[in-house]
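Revision sheet: structure tokens.
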Amino acid sequence: MNRYNNIPETVRIPVYNMAGETVETLDLPVSLFGGKIYADLLRQAVITHEANRRAGTAKTKTRREVAYGGAKPWPQKGTGNARAGSRGSPLWVGGGVAHGPKVRDYSKKLNRKMRKRALASAILGKALDGEVKLIDTMEPALHKTREVAQILKNIGVERSFMIVTPRHDPLLWRCTRNIRGASMMAACELNAYAVLKAREVVFVREAFDAAVDGCAGAAGEGAETVEAG
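Predicted:
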């Protein structure tokens, strides 16, 4: 996503049908998405998402935890060897690990307003880059992968993409999952990380309306409603 010094007042997003024909054009006020791109907040949202995915289960044993007896390997003096107190020392092969990783919780948290504003910034940035596609409906007649692939080709989607649906659609996902770079998410689960990760985001119109409603809450009071251009 490019950095924008001068963001226009409106962003234009065409709406396609499954044949790739433009059936509608949306002129959306940028104020609907918070008025600007909050780059620092986007970075924080990405770090939070990735941190919450970490298991935090890496663990090494210290010299107290390795399975060795407490006996001294050899006498302190008289052998000519260096002094050694335990075979569990980090200096010995098979001994404990000094300063190794321990089980920990890496999770972070963003409050609801920050999550909404980050999502609004992500969608706005993608829209300004021309990487947001709207389609009036996504209902292939035969429910075949080749049919979904043709629909995506019709609207100009050729790279890594995510389809955002109004609700979970296992049947559509079954037709889409074998396409390279494909992902899918319901509008209620949409987040800034998922929007940024996909090169192009394909919204079903109903799902886009739901996402815009959520962004309007993040933009504050007085946000304008979406109207077709």
